[in-house]
Design goal:
The chain is of the alpha/beta class. 39% of the residues lie in helices and 14% in strands.
Length: 654
């Protein structure tokens, strides 16, 4: 793919640069090929989402020796007979590699004058970083640990009384009231999360779809504002789509909640993208808000936090005021960010390494002991959307548990709400079936364009609502089962259904589009979905939903990068929900197909899922976990320093 080739070209260029610098700075000639080989891997790892690479694993990772003629091809032969200890020694004495203990994170001007910048950092445990990602990781860990401390609002009795008001009487405290398998009773996990948020500056809530994350955070915000009315609260999410979804979900939750008017008026009515919250400045490397100019908020709530990459998370924590509070919501089992890092999952690893929060064992309303991050991370496990016997929820659990045999057997049984097609036709034939899922959308477009309510104020909202009920989700962009080919084929059938001229123009009435780049001038953001509809003069305008439930229009010529959205990648679907989905996987296995990818796809659906994939592809995906090299978890004091390092899991290649 083009992205892979670009990443490889960048890695080759970086490796050659390090090779040249090794010579220029007087490094040992015998170490040059080792340094080039390691530099290639560090660059390629970053392009693949890893914040670092374990030096001992370099020879085992696919890709290093494949680029004939480049520095890595030469280096791979030089390293064939070398032991990892020799590689580590060569890197430790290289003038282009800094040792972590000698390296200053974000040095001051005075410090920078005494320290030679080195583009690579060798950290404890043999992890090799590009400097920027070492710096981000170290800063993020330091800020999380500084933030992770007790900060009680109000008295113990005031908090306990408020939690009783919001959640009812507390259940009897016991170790069995946690979410341990087989306990038989559902603990009041939402109450534990609220108690944690009232008692600590950091609260991390992980839960799958329908586990009540939004309901919980609304109660948390109400409790915070009832205890401290002066608190300034900000809502944010990594993408525009996720921010809009967060805003809509909170608005719907408030509509069905008995919230005092004096509290309701103080709740934020808008959710920002994290970039907008921090003050993105086009052409500037630094956000407006940072360590020296922190955010003017006391509480920041971030939804879909699993989508936060390492750099953005570090910058967000840098900008949080010293006395601020951070609440992170997400699903640790979903796909990590498309960029570098798996921040949310590694924070949640604290809980898995040391057990459940003490709040659930001792006092559900007033946690008394402090065990670090383990007391700040809450896992919601009871789904109110998927019953224990529900088809989608049961399949998602099989996938999440890595039980490919059980998942395939369940798919083969065709329970209500699930359908499996092992034979995957080519895109043109597949589009004939997939277009049926858009019948409500086709009808809404016909009504909007030609019907009695055509071009009225409510028509665009109805069209957008119809489009959001169903979606085709793909694992890849290219090939017969990719978004590009399927969008073209579905688009042809859509235009035929609307009796449109199937010309060469990419713009046509009813075209759904997905914005792929933020534009702060036009105020459309990565992940926003719009629909093109004609004006009375037959010009096209793209309609987007607004936060108040209405719509706004943008001329196609003013839109930033966008693509047709009948089929979208599973990554792009994060933060979205649909009544029904079709999941289309490639007919041959590849390293992009993972347990997390399939789990994320399945949990986008409320009621109906149809999966198109051969059995061997489904099995391989379930058995392959996403692995990202990182030192964040170990910096946070967890036992796990490398997600996916357990035996039996597939090691990622580049």
């Amino acid at each position: 793919m083009a992205a892979d080739q670009a990443a490889d070209d960048l890695a080759q260029a970086f490796a050659q640069l390090m090779r040249d610098l090794q010579h220029e700075l007087g490094g040992a000639i015998a170490d040059t090929e080792t340094v080039a080989f390691a530099a290639w891997h560090a660059s390629r790892a970053a392009s693949s989402g890893h914040s670092c690479i374990a030096v001992r694993d370099m020879a085992a990772v696919d890709g290093g020796a494949d680029s004939a003629g480049g520095p890595c091809h030469q280096a791979s032969h030089a390293l064939d007979a070398n032991a990892p200890d020799a590689w580590l020694a060569a890197l430790a004495r290289s003038p282009v590699v800094a040792r972590a203990e000698d390296c200053i994170s974000r040095p001051t001007s005075a410090e920078a004058g005494t320290q030679m910048f080195r583009p690579l950092v060798l950290d404890h445990g043999g992890l090799l970083y590009l400097y920027r990602y070492w710096d981000y990781e170290k800063r993020l860990a330091a800020r999380l640990l500084a933030l992770d401390r007790a900060a009680h609002l109000g008295s113990d009795e005031a908090r306990a009384q408020l939690l009783r008001q919001l959640f009812g009487e507390a259940p009897a405290a016991s170790a069995e009231r946690n979410d341990s398998p087989g306990s038989g009773a559902h603990p009041d996990q939402q109450r534990i999360a609220a108690a944690t948020a009232l008692a600590r500056r950091l609260c991390v809530i992980s839960g799958g779809p329908g586990t009540g994350k939004t309901a919980t955070v609304v109660k948390i915000l109400c409790a915070l504002l009832m205890l401290a009315p002066e608190l300034r609260v900000a809502l944010a999410a990594p993408t525009g789509k996720a921010a809009a979804r967060m805003q809509e979900s909170i608005r719907d939750q408030l509509a069905n909640s008995r919230v005092p008017d004096e509290v309701r008026t103080r709740l934020p009515n808008e959710a920002f993208t994290v970039h907008r919250l921090l003050g993105y400045r086009p052409g500037k490397a630094q956000f407006w808000h940072h360590r020296e100019r922190p955010l003017n908020f006391d509480v920041v709530v971030v939804d879909e936090a699993s989508m936060l990459d390492l750099a953005l998370a570090a910058k967000l924590l840098d900008a949080l005021p010293e006395q601020g509070r951070l609440i992170m919501l997400g699903d640790k089992d979903q796909l990590a960010s498309v960029e570098t890092g798996a921040v949310f999952a590694e924070i949640c690893a604290a809980r898995e390494s040391t057990g459940a929060p003490k709040a659930s064992h001792e006092s559900i309303d007033t946690p008394a002991h402090d065990r670090g991050l383990a007391d700040s991370v809450i896992r919601l496990t009871h789904s109110y959307r998927f019953s224990a016997a529900g088809a989608i929820g049961k399949l998602a659990r099989c996938v999440n548990d890595g039980d490919a045999g059980a998942a395939l057997a369940y798919l083969a049984a065709s329970p209500s709400g699930l359908h499996w097609e092992e034979a995957v036709p080519k895109a043109s034939a597949l589009a004939r079936v997939l277009i049926e899922g858009y019948q409500d959308y086709i009808d809404a477009c016909i009504d909007a364009i030609h019907g009695d309510a055509g071009r009225g104020e409510t028509a665009p909202a109805a069209v957008l609502a119809a489009f959001e009920r169903y979606r085709v989700l793909c694992a890849v962009r290219e090939g017969e089962q990719g978004t590009a080919e399927l969008n073209a084929c579905i688009g042809e059938r859509f235009r035929a259904a609307l009796a449109q001229d199937r010309g060469a123009s990419q713009w046509f009435p009813g075209r759904p589009v997905l914005v792929t780049r933020n534009d702060y001038v036009v105020q459309v953001f990565n992940g926003d979905v719009g629909v093109a509809l004609p004006t009375p003069g037959n010009d096209l305008l793209v309609h987007f939903r607004t936060s108040d439930g209405g719509t706004r229009t943008v001329a196609p010529a003013r839109l930033p990068d966008c693509e047709t959205a009948f089929a979208m990648t599973i990554h792009k679907a994060q933060g979205s929900e649909f009544d029904g989905i079709d999941i289309v996987l490639p007919v041959r296995d590849n390293r992009l197909l993972t347990r997390e990818l399939l789990y994320t796809a399945l949990t986008r659906a409320r009621t109906q899922v149809r999966l198109w994939a051969p059995a061997e592809v489904v099995k391989a995906a379930i058995e392959r976990r996403t692995q990202r090299y990182s030192g964040l978890a170990s910096r946070l004091g967890n036992r796990v320093s490398n997600r996916g390092e357990q035996s039996g899991e597939h090691r990622a290649g580049w």
